[in-house]
Amino acid sequence: MELIVKNLSKRFGEKLILDRLSLSIESGEFISLVGSSGSGKSTILRLIAGLEHPSSGIISVDGTPVSGPGPDRGMVFQKYSLYPWLNAAANVAFGMRLQRMKPTEIRERTAYFLEVVGLSEAGNKLPRELSGGMQQRVAIARALATNPSILLLDEPFGALDLQIRESMQDFLHKLWQRTGLTVLLITHDVEEALVLAQRVHVLAPNPGRIVRSLEVDLNKSDLDQLRLSSNFLALRRSLSRTMRELEPSLC
Ligand SMILES: Nc1ncnc2c1ncn2[C@@H]1O[C@H](COP(=O)(O)OP(=O)(O)O)[C@@H](O)[C@H]1O
Ligand SMILES: [Mg+2]
Fold first, then answer.
1. Which of 25, 141, 168, 245 sits in a 20 to 30 Å window from 86, CA-based?
2. Domains of the chain, with CATH numbers?
3. For 210-222, how does the pLDDT look when each residue is reduced to its tens digit (9 = 90+)?
């Protein structure tokens, strides 16, 4: 799997939203794009997902240009992404049904992916009966169940309280380590990007463009320790400063 984005620009009407964005992701990589609200993060993800078309530039998966949505790209959004009238298992099964997998395979894979996200017992619960963190785990299970070559995450933990957010980060980190998934995580949270990603791109607003890219060369065997380590804190300060400098002055 290789995702390539090259010189991607997007206009809505007269307004330039994204300006010649380039990045690439190889199989098994975890990449994060961090940017403030309105910088064009969701637009990038929607373009990669094939829900919008580029004004110019190229997006390709394994050499094939993206021309629309496809099961090779699994998406998870910030919230409201589960079908409220379907229980957790039926939500996980939804994409597989669309793909017309065999019912026995759907049943097996649903059970398997509910287990992967630690929700084996919650299959018959409706979304409203689950906590926000559990709902996002179901959304991740649903995205994984169709066997995508890349997982596209648009601020998946943005609506969760800080403590739950950190435990979801730990969860996603373990999942990535265990499965060798390829992940593009979009977030406004510098700490989240640094904790999870191997490489972080900073998106500047108006128009959205990448102004800084860095490798996160830190020991990630224990995320609690990582969050307190001096190397991590120095990187976080540096990235936060970059983000602040991109904002219009508040004074
Ligand atoms: N369908 C659309 N039509 C017009 N403008 C849009 C559309 N989608 C997004 N935008 C504009 O593009 C900019 C970036 O939006 P978005 O990608 O949602 O940013 P982010 O996810 O970083 O908050 C915003 O100014 C938003 O108003
Ligand atoms: Mg967004």
1. 168
2. 1-67+170-231+240-251 (3.40.50.300), 73-147 (no CATH)
3. 999 999 999 999 9
